[in-house]
């Protein structure tokens, strides 16, 4: 489903979620999975119908604890990822290879959509957002995670990578970060009413690829007694929104 992300070996990608003792980069992906899982649980009860996980990769959402009964359909543009996710799940669930800008589902047919660690890979996030809104039932939730554009910890991590640990002769991969305000405006323009924004990943990554350490090594889920620092420090945020009804009413 990603517009410009190079094809990735699914077995290597799965280590972000399944490997032992994650490095700082893998810790971000696992934190995003946990944040999305908590956000999904808070949106229950769900409208009847299937739940779609967009950019599912190796199927981490479909196999996440507490979401087994959600009936998740895992969608990814990469056929190899879908095949790996199917094997990883033991054949349980449904896996679809398709582009998120053209979802193979009728309008108003999905009970919910999640998009975890996907937005930064998209060349045209607005087209994908409009398409997810089209496919959702009125009142159904969208849960999406984002990298924060103005995070001090995120900027420090990026500078460390570029100054000290950038492989010679290789350009760093492109990955888009967002401001929460721009995301919320885009949601509203697409017919999605935001109901919650939660920030997470309060740490700096320092070290070579694959061995990047977290500083602090045991970061807290929040900035403690100074919540006003949250937008400034957190590397990621998750947005929960609901599809606006045809009458333009507020989300429930």
What does this structure look like?
This protein is of the alpha/beta class. It has one domain (10-224, 235-243): Rossmann fold. The protein is built from 8 helices and 9 strands. The protein has helices spanning 10-13, 15-18, 24-42, 79-88, 125-135, 152-164, 180-189, 230-233; strands at residues 51-54, 72-76, 94-97, 112-115, 141-147, 192-200, 204-206, 213-215, 236-243. The strands form 2 sheets. A 7-stranded mixed sheet has the order 3-2-1-4-5-9-6, sandwiched between helices. Strand 2, helix 4 (79-88) and strand 3 (94-97) form a beta-alpha-beta unit. The longest helix has 19 residues, at 24-42. The chain is globular and about 50 Å long.
Keywords for this entry:
252 residues; 19% strand; disordered N terminus; globular; Rossmann fold; alpha/beta
- Assembly annotation: single chain
Count of individual domains: 1
Q: Extract low-pLDDT stretches.
A: 1-6
Order of helices and strands: HHHEEHEEHEHHEEEHE
Computed Rg = 18 Å
CATH architecture grouping: 3-Layer(aba) Sandwich
Using the alpha-carbon principal axes, give the shape.
globular
Strand order of the largest sheet: 3-2-1-4-5-9-6
Task: Please identify the structural class as seen in this structure.
Answer: alpha/beta
Number of helices in the DSSP assignment: 8
Biggest sheet: strands, sense, closure?
7 strands, mixed
Number of E-state strands: 9
Distance N terminus to C terminus? Answer: 30 Å
Mean pLDDT: 85
Taken as a percent bin, the fraction of beta residues is 15-25%
CATH C-level label: Alpha Beta
